[in-house]
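Field log, afternoon session.

UNIT: design team B
ACTIVITY: writing a sequence onto a fixed backbone
BACKBONE:
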C-alpha cells in the first residue's frame, strides 16, 4: 500500500494544481458556445508544423457536433506545413482560422508583414502564403485577396499558439522560439491577446495517458507548463495542456473539458479585444 502511495505521490499531486469551475460537459458547452447577437469572434491558430493546429480545430468542432469532424487537414507525419492557405472553420458565432505553420527557417512559413495584414483583416480566406514575397508584393494574386478597408469582423480578435508539449524540452529550436517571440511582439503592438495550448500531454506520463482527467494532477504536465511559460514568456494561467482527438473514435467528456477550458479563455480574451476596439473607436 505504501509503495502504491509513494508511486502516486511521485507522479501526481493530491489535489489538482489547476481548478476548473466544472467538469460537467453540458454546462461547459453552454458557457463556451453561447452566442451573443451580432457578435462574431475570430480566432487565429498559429504554431509549428506537426504541433496539432488542424487537429485542435477538428477537436473543437467534434465536441460541438458530438461526433468526429475531420475537415481541417491534419497530417502530423509531415515535416513541412500541409496547410498553405488561410482556411476558415465556423463554429456558431466563432470562426477559427488555420494558416501555414510557423517554420524555423525564413524559407518556409509566412512573413511577419503578412501576419500583420492577417490580424488586421486585410488578407481574405483562400490566400496562398508565400514565404518570400509579402501579399503586397505578390502581383495580381495578392491584389485579389487583399482587402483595403477591413472591418471589425474581418480582424483577428485572439491568437492561439499551438505547441507540441513533448517538444518543449527536446526538439523545439531556439530559432523557432525566437520567431514565436517576435510574433508575440507584433501581437502586443496591435493589442491582440494570445494564449498557448500544449498538445499531446498524454505522452508526458502514463497517468494522463490512462485518464486525461488526471491532466491537472500530473506533476509532469505542471512542470511542462512552467517550462513553456519561461521559454515563451507567457503567463501560466494562459497556457493550456490538452489532448486532441486524433486516434480516438468516441467523443469523451474527460477529453472535452481541457479543450473547452482553453477555448473559453480564448473566447473571453477575444471579447475583451472587441470591446477594447469599440471603446477606442468611439473615442476617436
Amino acid at each position: 500500500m505504501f509503495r502504491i502511495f509513494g508511486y502516486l505521490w511521485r507522479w501526481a499531486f493530491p489535489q489538482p494544481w489547476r481548478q476548473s469551475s466544472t467538469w460537467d460537459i453540458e454546462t461547459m458547452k453552454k458557457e463556451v458556445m453561447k452566442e451573443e447577437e451580432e457578435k462574431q469572434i475570430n480566432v487565429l491558430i498559429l504554431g509549428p508544423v506537426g504541433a496539432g493546429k488542424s487537429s485542435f480545430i477538428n477537436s473543437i468542432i467534434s465536441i460541438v457536433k458530438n461526433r468526429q469532424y475531420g475537415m481541417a487537414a491534419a497530417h502530423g507525419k509531415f515535416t513541412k506545413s500541409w496547410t498553405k492557405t488561410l482556411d476558415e472553420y465556423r463554429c456558431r458565432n466563432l470562426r477559427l482560422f488555420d494558416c501555414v505553420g510557423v517554420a524555423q527557417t525564413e524559407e518556409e512559413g509566412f512573413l511577419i508583414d503578412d501576419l500583420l495584414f492577417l490580424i488586421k483583416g486585410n488578407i481574405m480566406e483562400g490566400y496562398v502564403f508565400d514565404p518570400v514575397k509579402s501579399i503586397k508584393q505578390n502581383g495580381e494574386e495578392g491584389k485579389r485577396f487583399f482587402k483595403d478597408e477591413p472591418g471589425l469582423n474581418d480582424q483577428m480578435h485572439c491568437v492561439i499558439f499551438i505547441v507540441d508539449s513533448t517538444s518543449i524540452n527536446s526538439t523545439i529550436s531556439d530559432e523557432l522560439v525566437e520567431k514565436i517571440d517576435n510574433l508575440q511582439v507584433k501581437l502586443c503592438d496591435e493589442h491582440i491577446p494570445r494564449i498557448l495550448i500544449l498538445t499531446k500531454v498524454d505522452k508526458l506520463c502514463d497517468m494522463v495517458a490512462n485518464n486525461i482527467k488526471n491532466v491537472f494532477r500530473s506533476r509532469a504536465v505542471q512542470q511542462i507548463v512552467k517550462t513553456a511559460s519561461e521559454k515563451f514568456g507567457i503567463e501560466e494561467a494562459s497556457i493550456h495542456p490538452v489532448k486532441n482527438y486524433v486516434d480516438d473514435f468516441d467523443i469523451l467528456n474527460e477529453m472535452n473539458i481541457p479543450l473547452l477550458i482553453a477555448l473559453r479563455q480564448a473566447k473571453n480574451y477575444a471579447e475583451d479585444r472587441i470591446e477594447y476596439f469599440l471603446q477606442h473607436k468611439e473615442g476617436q
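LOG NOTE: The two ends are 68 Å apart (CA to CA).
NEXT ACTIVITY: expression trials, pending approval
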